[in-house]
Structures are given as C-alpha cells and as structure tokens.
C-alpha cells in the first residue's frame, strides 16, 4: 500500500498570519508538490487570490481548493471529506497537503475526520500548526481585530457553536503540535520570550513553540513533523465541542519590511562513525532537549555495520533506520544537520554530538 500523504493543518485567528506563512512556504517549497485546501467563505474570502500562483509549478491554480460553505469543522461530512476524496482521485497526487482553516474553526473535529473510512487509509495529519498574533495575545486580545472576527462569525450560517475567543484559543493551543508566535517584530525581546514561555507551559510537553515575523518559517521546520495527530486525539482535549470561524486575511501585516529566515539557523555537524545506533539516538535526544533544537536529520556510519543509518528528529522524537549499503569508496562518517531558532550554542551542540 502506498504511504499516506502527509497533511499539515494550519489554524489561528483572523490576522494571525496563516496565509502569509503558507505563501512563504510555497515560495520555498524546493520542488515539493503541495496541494492547498483553504477554508474561506463570503465576501471576506481573499486567501485563494493571495495564494494563487505563488508556488509556480509546485502549487498550481488547480492545486488550490476552497471550502466556502462555512467553518470547516462544522461542514466535515458535507464539504471537507468529499473535497479530500476528490483530491485523492487525481492522477498526479501531491507530496503534501496543507489545510488552512478559517480562524473560528476548532482543529479537533477536523483532525478527527482523518479517521473517516473514506480517507483514513490515504492521508495522515503530519502536524497541527497554530499561528498566534504575538502582539495581540500579549495585549490580551487574541486577535488583531476582534470586530472583524465577530463580523465573520455572524456571516457563517453553518456555524454550530458560540465559543468565546479565549476558549477557542485554548482549543487551538491544546490541539497544536507546533505553535508559531508571529509578528515578534512588534514585540521587544522580553515580551516575546515571556509569551513563548507562557505558551510552552500551557501546551503539551511535546509541542514546539517558535518565534517569527512575517510568517517566515523554514519549510523543513513547518513540514515533515510526522505526528499522525489523528491517532493522538486523547491528548488534544477540547474546551468545548462547539466552535467559531474567524477568517484570515493575513496580509494586513504585509507592509512591514521583508525579513529572511534570520530568526532561524542551521549548521552541519560531522563526526566519525558511531559505535551503537541505539545509544547514539539517546544521546541525540538529550542534546535536543538540552538545547531546544527544532529539527535534526542526517546519516551515520555504524561500526561493524555495512548499511547507512538514517536519523531524523522532530524535537526529542527520534526515528532511525538503515536505508542502504554504504559504498566501498564512501567515507564512514556521520553527518547531521541541526535546525533551530537563532542563537543556538553551536560549539556546545557540536561538542555534545561528537562526544
């Protein structure tokens, strides 16, 4: 059976920066073919126009599908599942699917829908990403424009819940595998760090919290989390089983100056062959925990083994497997790529990984 297509669910309030995050992702997809499902409706639906064409060959106009009948978690059976089925009948399947929910959508019902028999054998939730407007949340408003949220809420005739913003925010945080604190250029360093600490304490232990501005997030950080969230619903408790929809015209922040990925850094660590694969995986996990590394991936030669060891880590979760024989002329060494927020202690990480 073919591998399931990984799907990333991106949620967050109106104006948090979801669309900008996705646009940046498409422009830096590196040839990965991505299909988008955008949950928008009414006169506020502009995300499709913002995103159309921005991925060129990696995400064509035909790869963008809009759900415009109301909030996605209230229209799972009527709208979302049929759309996924249609996408999965295409002759050229995507490498990855990205779903941008409306801002009032509860992510839990959408994740739960991936267990529906019609799609459960074909797709899996790679991860749930909750985008947070750092300035608004710091000021206790959750959304940049609460009036706009309420206006969109009133427009959605299919909305079946009246969730206060504070409770909806809690649901989005509870379901997240990664929390992106956006618009940190509007906060000072202490404010941003305090918000990150607060969100880490309010979320599950395995959740990564990252800071960025203008939705700039490396594709290797955003995609490829490998969570399988539909199999982990018990830990993603819902404050309420009703919800709301806030739409995401995230371009309101686009007039600020452009940033590169200077909030993140990556570097390569080279070391000789390792003695024991399991012991090295435990060593890597400890280094990741100690230095708050987001991603680590690479290859290793293991003493006495003819096969190359592949190692991939998302936070402290480590996956290792032997993928192919080492060539006769291939150096028996270990090469790891480390990715994290800017300011990593490179020397200490290199020393720890080479110990």
Question: What does the model show?
Answer:
This protein is of the alpha/beta class and 355 residues long. It folds into 2 domains: 5-253, Rossmann fold; 264-354, Hypothetical Protein Yjia, Chain: A,domain 2 (2-Layer Sandwich), CATH 3.30.1220.10. It is built from 11 helices and 12 strands. The strands form 2 sheets. A 7-stranded parallel beta sheet has the order 3-2-4-1-5-6-7, with helices on both faces. Strands 8-12-9-10-11 form a 5-stranded antiparallel beta sheet, covered by helices on one side. Strand 6, helix 8 (189-202) and strand 7 (208-211) form a beta-alpha-beta unit. Mean pLDDT is 79; it is low at 41-48 and 241-261.
Given as residue ranges, the uncertain stretches (5+ residues, pLDDT < 50) are: 41-48, 241-261
Q: How many E strands?
A: 12
How many domains comprise the coordinates? Answer: 2
Radius of gyration: 21 Å
Taken as a percent bin, the fraction of beta residues is 15-25%
CATH superfamily of the largest domain: P-loop containing nucleotide triphosphate hydrolases
Helix content: 25-40%
* Total of helices: 11
CATH architecture of the largest domain: 3-Layer(aba) Sandwich
What integer is the average pLDDT?
79
**Subunit arrangement of the protein:** single chain
Shape: globular
CATH fold name of the largest domain, please?
Rossmann fold
Structural class per helix/strand content? alpha/beta
């Amino acid at each position: 059976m073919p591998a399931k297509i990984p799907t990333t669910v991106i949620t967050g309030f109106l104006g948090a920066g979801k669309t900008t995050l996705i646009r940046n992702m498409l422009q830096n997809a590196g040839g990965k073919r991505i299909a988008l499902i955008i949950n928008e409706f009414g006169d506020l639906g502009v995300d499709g126009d913002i995103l159309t064409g921005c991925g060129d060959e990696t995400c064509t106009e035909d790869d963008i599908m809009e759900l415009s009948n109301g909030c996605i978690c209230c229209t799972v059976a009527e709208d979302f599942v049929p759309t996924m089925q249609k996408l999965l009948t295409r002759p050229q399947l995507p490498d990855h699917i990205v779903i941008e929910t409306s801002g009032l959508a509860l992510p839990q019902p959408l994740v739960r829908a991936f267990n529906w028999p019609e799609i459960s054998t074909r797709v899996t939730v790679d991860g749930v990403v909750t985008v947070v407007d750092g300035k608004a949340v710091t000021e206790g408003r959750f959304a940049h424009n609460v009036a706009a949220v309420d206006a969109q809420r009133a427009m959605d005739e299919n909305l079946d819940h009246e969730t206060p913003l504070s409770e909806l925010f809690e649901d989005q945080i509870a379901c997240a595998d990664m929390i992106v604190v956006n618009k940190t250029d509007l906060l000072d360093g202490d404010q941003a760090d305090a918000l990150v600490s607060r969100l880490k304490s309010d979320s599950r232990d395995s959740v990564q919290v990252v800071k960025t501005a203008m939705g700039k997030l490396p594709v290797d950080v955003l995609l490829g989390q490998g969570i399988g969230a539909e199999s982990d619903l018990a830990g993603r408790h819902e404050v309420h089983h009703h919800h709301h929809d806030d739409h995401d015209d995230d371009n309101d922040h686009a007039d600020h100056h452009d940033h590169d990925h200077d909030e993140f850094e990556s570097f390569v660590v080279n070391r000789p062959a390792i003695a024991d694969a399991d012991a090295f995986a435990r060593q890597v996990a400890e280094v990741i925990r100690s230095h708050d590394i987001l991603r680590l991936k690479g290859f290793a030669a293991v003493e006495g083994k003819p096969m190359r060891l592949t190692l991939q880590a998302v936070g402290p979760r480590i996956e290792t497997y032997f993928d192919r024989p080492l060539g006769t002329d291939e150096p028996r060494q270990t090469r790891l790529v480390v990715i994290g927020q800017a300011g990593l202690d490179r020397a200490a990480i290199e020393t720890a990984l080479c110990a």
